[in-house]
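so my prof wants the structure for this chain in the tokens format not the other one, which i didnt know existed until like an hour ago. anyway here's the sequence
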Amino acid sequence: MVSIFGIFDVLGFKSFCENCDLQETEKVLKVMDEFETDIPKVLMAGLDTKNTTPLEKREQVTSRLKWLIFSDTIFVAMPIDLSDKPDKLKFNLIFFAILVAYINRRMFEIGLPVRGAVHIGDVIVSKRCFAGKAIVETYRLGQSVQVAGSVISEAASTFVSHAFPDQTGFHEMFKNLFVECEVSTGNNSSGKFKTLCWFYLKMGLIEDFNSHIDLDRFVTVKFTAHGKKLLGEKEERRVSNTVKLFREWQIANYLMTKGISPPEIPSIIALR
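here's what i got, hopefully its the right format
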């Protein structure tokens, strides 16, 4: 089954398990449990601002998603039927992209930053397992970067670009979500990657991230939340790499919107 999917691993999960008290742990895990149920509903409500999409259509969209959350890994996939009409394909991609961006943002906010990748390819998903060559490719891509963030494979980025050829509307939204940056790959090396930027995701009850805060302090606090420790130089570099990435997001957004009003997410109705 061809799917666009993301695999996201929680950084510092072992330290979280060792140091977080049980009551705090329950609160954090509850947020993760809600990803599968509440978040798709929140996103649908944000997209369908006039609340005119029939309930059965809402359920069809959310039921397309395939979820697996276990231990320190989050897997979410949206199956892609290449024979679908363009509008249906576009909506599936919009819904998926906003969802994974929100997951990355929410995990950071609750003090469990993730690292991962988004890819497209053939995967097999059962009730409890997933497999396929594309899974291995995605895992390797996500593990190749030394930052609390997610990267977009060239195949996934190209697929989305071809689905949204017009330089308006949701094309602008994806320009804000898929931002090319220089990302550390360790050993004093780096590379250009499309990154999943969640700073400028705004819709419904989801407000803009306050990007004017002290990024150094903000990132450090989230990396060390719940009693987590920065164990060694590698983890300390990961903090500084993440700060650098966030600043690149700010610069990219500034350059893109200079003299231009920020793009607004159109109503879902136009894609029905």
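also thought this was worth mentioning. The beta strands are 2-10, 66-70, 73-79, 114-122, 124-125, 130-131, 150-152, 178-186, 189-196.
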